[in-house]
Amino acid sequence: xxxxxxxxxxxxxxxxxxxxxxxxxxxxxxxxxxxxxxxxxxxxxxxxxxxxxxxxxxxxxxxxxxxxxxxxxxxxxxxxxxxxxxxxxxxxxxxxxxxxxxxxxxxxxxxxxxxxxxxxxxxxxxxxxxxxxxxxxxxxxxxxxxxxxxxxxxxxxxxxxxxxxxxxxxxxxxxxxxxxxxxxxxxxxxxxxxxxxxxxxxxxxxxxxxxxxxxxxxxxxxxxxxxxxxxxxxxxxxxxxxxxxxxxxxxxxxxxxxxxxxxxxxxxxxxxxxxxxxxxxxxxxxxxxxxxxxxxxxxxxxxxxxxxxxxxxxxxxxxxxxxxxxxxxxxxxxxxxxxxx
Length: 341
Description:
Layout (H helix, E strand, L loop, with lengths): L1 E5 L8 E12 L12 E5 L4 H4 L12 E12 L7 E7 L3 H16 L5 E13 L2 H11 L4 E6 L4 E6 L2 E6 L2 E5 L1 E5 L2 H6 L1 H19 L8 E10 L4 E10 L4 H8 L7 E2 L1 H11 L10 E5 L5 E5 L3 E5 L2 E10 L5 H13 L5
Antiparallel strand pairs: 1-2, 1-7, 2-4, 3-4, 3-15, 5-6, 6-14, 6-18, 7-8, 8-17, 9-10, 9-16, 10-13, 11-13, 12-13, 15-16, 17-18
Helix pairs in contact: 2-8
């Protein structure tokens, strides 16, 4: 078992390796009776079957994983060279563009307003997965990077998206919508702003279910952050709550930015549009610091694998005026930091 976190999780720089005491697996949120005060948790996208009461493709991986942590130690990584050989995609380029057109048709019919369409890229890994994580992070440093190896499977996340962070009674979320190689394009994109606003409103509604009345605020709207290979737009939603992490997740999961609007219908449509199983991708993972405080990232830019086989996932938010070719280019841009020929 191995867990490596980028320093931002601990408000530090560099990388830190956890000394894991134990890993527990759970079939549902209701089966979790106690969470260790210092632990790292991974929640599968497929918990949507419980939180939204829907039948979607089943996952072979445990819905919830919680690693009890004794302590962290600073790590000086010495990654070896790795190579990825693309073996296939869940959707080829034409199929992905056809999916965009199908979603536009669903929007035109009034079935949905926006859907996050994703793709799975399957690879053969030449090298070791922890080195792949460090090389991935070097290509694109992010706040919520981590590597988890359970012995049976591993998860590599290069996420920059904060799902939920609770400190005391303060709860914040920073949904991302809007991606481009060019700053000026994103600053002037009404399409991306409209999409971002839609998801921000969804998070206001989700957090509003468990927040104190009158405590919801949006201190940031359409903020753009630069990363090594792209620019991304996020907004910030805040609220006050005394609810537990499990109670909060039940009311906000799965994350709005990786599903769409309205959430329940989009998750249902996603299951018909995507031939692949999302597994942990588009779920969430993060550090539980004590009885009240935690930080959970959305599992975007995420790979899941076993031995020398792995799958990397990426997706795009589709709205009525989405252009299939532009969305495909955005998809490839999101894969670029992980896999460059």
